[in-house]
Amino acid sequence: MPPILSITNLRKSYADGFEALKDVSLEIEEGEIIALLGPNGAGKTTLISTVCGITMPTSGTVTVAGHDILADYRAARSLIGLVPQEINLEPFEKVINTVRFSRGLFGKPRKDGVVEDILKRLSLWDKKDNQIRELSGGMKRRVLIAKALAHEPRVLFLDEPTAGVDVELRKDMWAIVEQLRADGVTTILTTHYIEEAEAIADRIGVISKGEILLVEDKDKLMARMGKKQLEVQLSTQLSEIPGALSGYDLTLGNDGWTLIYAYDTKRERTGITKLLGDVAEAGLQLRDVETRQSSLEDIFVDLVRADTKEMS
Known about the structure:
It is built from ten helices and 14 strands. The protein is of the alpha/beta class. The chain folds into two domains: 219 residues, P-loop containing nucleotide triphosphate hydrolases (Rossmann fold), CATH 3.40.50; 67 residues, Alpha-Beta Plaits (2-Layer Sandwich), CATH 3.30.70.100. The strands form three sheets. Strands 6-7-8-3-9-10 form a six-stranded mixed sheet, sandwiched between helices. It has a four-stranded antiparallel sheet with strand order 2-1-4-5. A hairpin with a 4-residue loop joins strand 12 and strand 13. Helix 3 runs parallel beside helix 5. The chain is elongated, with a radius of gyration of 24 Å. The two termini are 41 Å apart. This is ABC transporter ATP-binding protein. GO terms for molecular function: ATP binding. InterPro entries: AAA+_ATPase, ABC_transporter-like_ATP-bd, ABC_transporter-like_CS, ABC_transporter_ATP-binding, P-loop_NTPase. Keywords: ATP-binding, Nucleotide-binding, Transport.
């Protein structure tokens, strides 16, 4: 089955020579949830804007369900829903009219049942006759999603959808995305909240300086690049690692109160038993020992840091 969204060698440059996107290629399967992570200015919003027809690409191709975004832009755009970062709603309009209007913009016939279903799923039905200005910030974000879904798109872009909302509402949003997946909607999410990507995404894409550094299954990525650490908390503060332990890959943390040992869980021997024996031999008393698995955030930070070093 061909991908629902195919991006090939996409570039976006400006008159001053700045390249916002550099040869980006990406394929996304129908019903998939993919999280696109990157620091500010990495190109996340430019990528979304280009796919959605807001920004013209310099070169490359993008197809949505086989429709080219330039040659067949009406068909391609009708399949896409976009939830932007900014809340830009008519403050004196009613919620239900705002959503109906968005459906009409795409030439869709009026279907009150579709609008009602969307508003109910987003917990907005009891607010349908409220003016937008009467809603909280979180409810306004829900209206943005309702607007994006009003024309029944197959691909949904969420550009920082939970920025500025509380943790409870953020988790509600995650549940909404899972419901959309059940309906066959493909979701591309950009976020600064790493735990958001870790919680709901099937695959993770990392973008930095306009380039895709990787796109990989979330679980495989964490298994491949995740590290495990042994943290040995000491009863005595150290100013440096003793020479007797110099053969180990150790770092000193917690202002000298902790020895940190990174190891590969796939190796036949981790070296932990010997390390703990040598720590005791060095005359150091242990206060506590614990292990820690690196998170998606650790992996993301390492990738972006490595990319920055290569560019400098």
